[in-house]
Amino acid sequence: MHFPLVSAWNKRRRSKSYDTDPWVYRAAECWQINDQAPSQPRKRRYGSSVYTLKEMEEATSFFSDENLLGKGGFGRVYKGTLKTGEVVAIKKMDLPPFKKADGEREFRVEVDILSRLDHPNLVSLIGYCADGKQRFLVYEYMQNGNLQDHLTGIKEAKISWPVRLRIALGAAKGLAYLHSSSAVGIPIVHRDFKSTNVLLDSNYNAKISDFGLAKLMPEGKETCVTARVLGTFGYFDPEYTSTGKLTLQSDIYAFGVVLLELLTGRRAVDLTQGPNEQNLVLQVRNILNDRKKLRKVIDPELPRNSYSMEAIAMFADLASRCIRIESSERPSVMDCVKELQLIIYTNSKGGLGGTIPTFRRL
Ligand SMILES: Nc1ncnc2c1ncn2[C@@H]1O[C@H](COP(=O)(O)OP(=O)(O)OP(=O)(O)O)[C@@H](O)[C@H]1O
Ligand SMILES: [Mg+2]
After folding, report:
1. 70 alpha carbon – ligand 2 mean position (Å)
2. Quick one: average pLDDT of 286-311?
3. Which positions are annotated as binding ATP (predicted)?
């Protein structure tokens, strides 16, 4: 990307309003600002605004520590308030020289893909800033942060079982939208689905974030061979890591790992544990269909009256199928959506207060 072209494009975008056809898709690798028809981005709920570095600094009080929401592999995320008064989350991409190319690619993929998506279970990209060497992504602000913090007790109280089920269903619906062709005409593999990329709004609705590693499946194909295996330890599809073949089912494996985190309240990988207890999948894989042993791994902080054992067994069974080694044996995302709806119904029937509460803390 040539920066003068970016700023020229930014200026053009600022001075026009677009409400015509969606963009014609071009692979992120071919994303060239100068030949991308800038007059035709899809009109989105927010529109992808372009910001200056000054606007980013003002929004976050110069990236003050008080506004720091969290830190990830590609930078820090700050809470910010735009001139319009809108509260947002601003990811300041941190690109040390050895990660520069990867970071730049993630930035472009995220802007390119997320700008085209619009679903209640996906975090919205409000805009971005590409100013000199600085890169920022501006997202809708998710008041309750990431799911992992709520499961591992970093937040003050753990979330209840019915809310966990609702989060699992929301995340599955977000993935279903990506995997269907409804988003950009061809399916999208997220490739970095994990509990820190499931964010929660003020009502604990789940929204998937971080599309920097997302991959559009080649048209008509179910497998995409990649040169490098990308993702996060603990969530890697074993078939993808051993063959480099990426499929939609790679996301299902990661989804299964998140189901296990919801069930057990443990991390996918916990390096503070002994060598045999660090990997959640290896630890629980063989007991998911054994009710007696299953009871022992249910998050001990879930009150016994918040779940029915029937619903737990169905949930564990779904998780066990999602994490199968053979990707063809895993359920599709639509199967996951349907099964989770049934599990929610089963749990509510078990004398647990009828319909799922909008939000209930333990
Ligand atoms: N839109 C948002 N609203 C509120 N908090 C957010 C938002 N996006 C990210 N965060 C917070 O910032 C943290 C860091 O996010 P980031 O995506 O940079 O890293 P990560 O997903 O935790 O890890 P990694 O970079 O390794 O994938 C998140 O865990 C979350 O708590
Ligand atoms: Mg993230």
Report:
1. 9
2. 92
3. 92
Q: Is 79 annotated as a binding residue?
A: no
At 6 the pLDDT is 35
Ligand 1 contacts CB of residue 89 (under 6 A):
yes
Pocket test for ligand 1, best of 60, 67, 77 (most atoms within 8 A of CB): 77
Which residues form the catalytic set?
192
Vertex 187, ends 326 and 210: CA angle to 5°? 90
Same domain, yes or no, for 226 and 209?
yes
CB 359 within 8 A of CB 320: no
Q: For residue 196, give its domain range.
A: 147-359
Strand extents, DSSP E, 165-319: 188-189, 198-200, 206-208, 215-216, 223-225, 245-247
Q: Are 361 and 303 in contact (CB under 8 A)?
A: no
Say which range, 100-109, 158-167, 233-242, has the weakest mean pLDDT. Answer: 100-109
Domain stops at, among 140, 161, 185: 140
Q: What is the CATH number of the domain that holds 171?
A: 1.10.510.10
Residue 89 alpha carbon to ligand 1 centre in Å: 9
CB 290 within 8 A of CB 306: no
Element (H, E) at 78: strand 75-81
| pTM (two decimals) | 0.84
Q: CA 202 to CA 142: how far, in whole Å? A: 7
Each residue's pLDDT tens digit, 195-235: 999 999 999 999 999 988 888 877 677 787 776 777 788 99
Mean pLDDT computed over every residue of the chain: 82
Highest mean pLDDT out of 275-279, 300-304, 340-344: 340-344
Sort residue 19 into left (φ over 0), alpha (ψ -120 to 50) or beta. alpha
Query: What angle do the packed helices 333-349 and 309-322 form, to 10 degrees?
Result: 170
Q: Find the radius of gyration of the CA atoms of the chain.
A: 21
On whether residue 59 sits in a domain, the answer given is: yes
Same domain membership, residue 110 and residue 87: yes
pLDDT confidence of residue 155: 64
Average pLDDT over residues 130-153: 93
Spatial CA neighbour of 237 closest among 135, 327, 313, 307: 327
